[in-house]
Automatic annotation (TrEMBL):
Boundaries of every Histidine-specific methyltransferase SAM-dependent domain copy: 12-319
Bilayer-crossing regions: none
DNA-binding recorded as keyword: no
Keywords tagged on the record: Methyltransferase, Transferase
Alphabetical list of InterPro entries matching this protein: EgtD, EgtD_Methyltrsf_superfamily, MeTrfase_dom, MeTrfase_EgtD-like, SAM-dependent_MTases_sf
Keyword Cytoplasm annotated: no
Name of the featured protein: Dimethylhistidine N-methyltransferase
Source organism phylogeny: Bacteria, Pseudomonadati, Bacteroidota, Flavobacteriia, Flavobacteriales
PANTHER family linked to this entry: ERGOTHIONEINE BIOSYNTHESIS PROTEIN 1
Species name: Salegentibacter holothuriorum
Record-level Gene Ontology MF annotations: methyltransferase activity
Amino acid sequence: MKTTPTTFQTAFEEDVYKGLTSFPKYLLSKYIYDQKGDKLFQQIMAMPEYYLTNCELNILKHHKAAIAEIINTKGGFDLIELGAGDGKKTKILLQHLVDKKYDFNYLPIDISQHVLEELENSLKNEIPEVNVKIQQGTYFKTLENLAGYSNRRKVILFLGSNIGNLLHENAIEFLRNIQHAMHQDDKLFMGFDQKKDPQNILDAYNDKTGITEAFNKNLLARINKELDADFNLDNFKHWEAYDPESGTAKSYLVSKAHQKVTIKKLELEVNFDAWESIHTEISQKYDDAVVEWLAKEAGLEIETSFQDQENWYKNYIFRK
Ligand code: AVJ
């Protein structure tokens, strides 16, 4: 039995150990995304309840011309996307930039080479005019490199309200890192899911078909698979809570009974009381005041913003 964490082979091992020996228990949402998790997230984006994707798609369709005019510049620009995924939303903007014959390179950054190659291939078929240079790596290392090597104007894209997984202090640090990599006339284009009727938010993170439940429980499935553990997924309940005051949606896995779980690779036994929780994810919702505050703390300024008809979702353009 491991009493103190000694040596861990991976950050995953260490983070799982820390989270499940803490009180209250937690797991980090970034570990949801293995191959199965990626697939489940694709399914989430296609659900009618998960309004975020469609809202952002509509904003891009509606405002692509105005957006393109703001980000375009004499001498061309590099369009750098953090975590591009399948690029479904970005392609709306790329097609418009191509139609208008704007001079730009598209540089999607992702940790997964596989995701990048798929994106590159689909672009070759769908919009072959785009000059794409895929960048495998972590966001900030790659951004730093690009800041050093290219003297073209940079436009950084971060879509999907992915920032919502971060507590405000971490979001500020994230924005500051981007700000450091930006030069005077560079732009940052980002999506922020907005505060709205709490019921719509709860529905988006607790669909009746159980896709989000499977997505959340994929953390346990992954620990079972990679760390040789014996979580019984049926013994946990997916639970979503939304606090309209803070705008924070929180996901949990709640133990339905007193139970013991063994994680062999960590030489760890984890005890759960009945109805004890594991906090797994936050999905922050925003309003203008909060986005302005985050931007100010990070040394950024809001240049303009675009919203959908209901104001459920908003894309902001920031400058230094
Ligand atoms: C990918 C972080 C934007 O929080 O809305 C979807 C992930 N979690 N359903 C979000 C997620 C549950 C998603 N982000």
